[in-house]
Amino acid sequence: MKQIITFIIAFISVFSFAQEKDKAELLALKKANNYVYEGNALAEEDNFISAEMEYRKAISENPTTITGTYNLGTTYIGKGNFDEALYRLEEATKTATSKTEKHKAFHNIGNILMQNKKCKEAVEAYKNALRNNPTDDETRYNLGLAKICAEQQQDQEDQNKDENKEDKKDDNKENEDEKENQDNKDKEGDKEEDKKDEGDQEKKEGDDEKDEEGKPKDEKEGKGDEEKKKDQQKPKPQPGQLSPQQIKNLLEAMNNQEQKVQEKMNAEKQKGVKIKTDKDW
């Protein structure tokens, strides 16, 4: 009997605690809804700062409320703060319990991504929205636009990649040509250097051969010295005396004169004229 009484008391305590918990949750939900309502009113008046404060109060009272999170995200869209709006709407997709709520959140996420020119990501967002509400024509229309935009972006990316490849190929070609030209110049320089070295070596070998064969340079120098000695040994003419060369020239002149005289005498004899042989004094 005592055990039964204890069980009944425990059951009543648990039931009372559950009721108190339910009451607290209902009160928090009620407060959150009130804050959302006030936030909506302020947002309609374009008072986004005050509306944001009310939505944050709603989330603080009931973190799982989808309405507060979703409305806060749409408020950021109105303010142009797309990054914060995207963050809040993504939170809404995680906490949403109905397909309708998820559809709206994904739809607005797609709109934000399109605003940011992220067409590929927008396609996926619109697809998720249609999975939760396949009959929404607006979402379907936006999905078509997002696909066209994504294809254009992909084509542009491919074109840029091709251009980059061509530019890189041209740069590599230019670098290869420059390297080849430099290599050719280096080779020509090496050839010229080798030729020069070969010429110097041949010249050196020739000089060595001449030195071994009798040192002709020294012999030539020796001959020159001998000729200089001979010239020094020749008797130099004294002042008032004729040099041997002068005497030789004089004798040749006398012989020539004598020959002329003889030729003249012979010519006179042939004419019969007597020629004097003695000179007049």
Structure description:
The protein has 281 residues and is an all-alpha fold. The chain has a domain at 2-159: Tetratricopeptide repeat domain (Serine Threonine Protein Phosphatase 5, Tetratricopeptide repeat), CATH 1.25.40. The chain is 85% helix and 0% strand. The chain contains nine helices and no strands. Mean pLDDT is 75; it is low at 273-281.
Q: What gyration radius follows from the Cα positions, in whole Å?
A: 64 Å
According to CATH, what is the class of the domain at 2-159? Mainly Alpha
The number of helical elements comes to 9
Secondary structure class reads: mainly alpha
Order of helices and strands: HHHHHHHHH
Number of beta strands: 0
Unreliable sequence segments: 273-281
Report the CATH superfamily of the domain at 2-159: Tetratricopeptide repeat domain
How far is it from the N-terminal to the C-terminal residue, by CA? 207 Å
- Beta-strand content bin: under 5%
Describe the largest sheet: none
CATH fold-level name of the domain at 2-159 = Serine Threonine Protein Phosphatase 5, Tetratricopeptide repeat
Which whole number gives the mean pLDDT? 75
From the spread of the alpha carbons, the general shape counts as: rod-shaped
Question: What's the CATH architecture of the domain at 2-159?
Answer: Alpha Horseshoe
Helical residues, percent? over 70%
